[in-house]
Specification:
The chain has 215 residues and is an alpha/beta fold. Helix 3 packs parallel to helix 4, helix 5 crosses helix 7 and helix 8 packs antiparallel against helix 9. It is an enzyme of class 1 (oxidoreductase).
Length: 215
Amino acid sequence: MNFGCPATRRGGCGLLLGLAAHLPVVKRILPAIRKAVSIPFTCKFRTGWDDKSIIVRQMGQLAEDCGLQGVSLHGRTRQQGYSGAANWDLIADLKQSVNIPVIGNGDVFSPEDCVRMFTHTGCDGVMIGRAASTNPWIFSQIRQYIASGKYEQPTQQQRYEMLRDYYQLLLSESDKISGTAVRLAESVCDLDVTGHAHGAELRKGVCLAHVLLTM
């Protein structure tokens, strides 16, 4: 269960991350879900609503007491959104305070960052969000880096093929989402081809497709 989304439309109406500010409510929700499902059940949360309401240990202990199989912690408050730096010290503190697996999240943009988080926090796993949407190779790069201390960068051809395959996959799902598919592909394209030959032309092509499909 994701208590960690900072979007105003969710936290602002008292749901998801907003619930984490009301631990008695969470204490009723988690056991009910645990009882209702037979699959592994975990939750993700942030460090608190703001710096004055840090709830890391309370949420971690509550999750453990309710029988969850693990927790994920993003090292920022809701107030921070994605600004500032993730507080990895609080992830380390959570790891020391519970006996269930702890997955760290926040500011992991490279294989080096991933290893640093493991070392700094002692966490059992690392969750990667934004970096994966702009560099889908990061997971294989992390495996390479842990195994050998080095990793390969994708070639220009691999980047182009990834964007093409991703866009075609989106289009194959439904003709109704073609405009959405182009917008999603465009967001990836903006970041994945930056600094590479013909990147500008590729971005223009995706933008043109967006215009044609939404006319």
